Amino acid sequence: MFRPARSWWALPPILLFVAGIVFWGGFNWALELTNTESFCISCHEMRDNPYKEYRQSIHFSNPSGVRATCPDCHVPREWIYKVIRKIRASNELYHHFLGTIDTREQFLAQRHELAKIVWKTMRETDSRECRNCHSETAMKLKDQNPLAAEAHRQAQDEHKTCIDCHQGIAHQLPEAFLEAEHERFEREQVPCYRCHQQMSRPDDDEAWE
């Protein structure tokens, strides 16, 4: 006996399953498409400002040949955190179309505030994206130069996170930040050679000049 009705019962679930696969695949494809350096620098604000500075940094070119791109440092690898970051990035798209930072002068004027937002986020995540490549437990401090080894030991003792010391690792530091830090170092009598490594280290570690 011919019973055509039964053959249709399975069709909606199958179509729903296929549609789910297509939607999920398309969503992840779009997510990864926006997670590339070429996408990051597709707007002139990024291409003409942070990206130019990054190309002069150790993260772009170094003896080991390992390059960290924009997403490596600014986008989480874990899927849920990545989606959250993409949602927050919609605010950046809003300001792009609004023309909030349309010139180099506008970028420099906003640079310190923009940097503080990134630094705050990285502190809250314990420099999560840095730790994707760098591990304190894997560091051989004895093979580092004395200043770096000393700084890393101190950072571990004081439970500091990477961004507390490496704010300018890939981009130039804001002038306002540099001025404030220099004044703080003078007050705290931090030796010059700790930041200006081209200076010879004095015998007296407490010496300022």
Q: Outline, from the CA principal axes?
A: globular
Can you name the CATH architecture of the domain at 15-140? Answer: Orthogonal Bundle
Q: How much strand content do the residues show? A: under 5%
- How many helices in DSSP terms? 10
Distance between the termini: 101 Å
Gyration radius, in Å: 24 Å
Q: Give the CATH level 1 class of the domain at 15-140.
A: Mainly Alpha
Low-confidence stretches: none
CATH topology category name of the domain at 15-140: Multiheme cytochrome fold
Average pLDDT figure: 86
Order of secondary-structure elements: HHHHHHHHHH
Description:
The protein has 209 residues and is mainly α. It is built from ten helices and no strands. The termini are far apart.
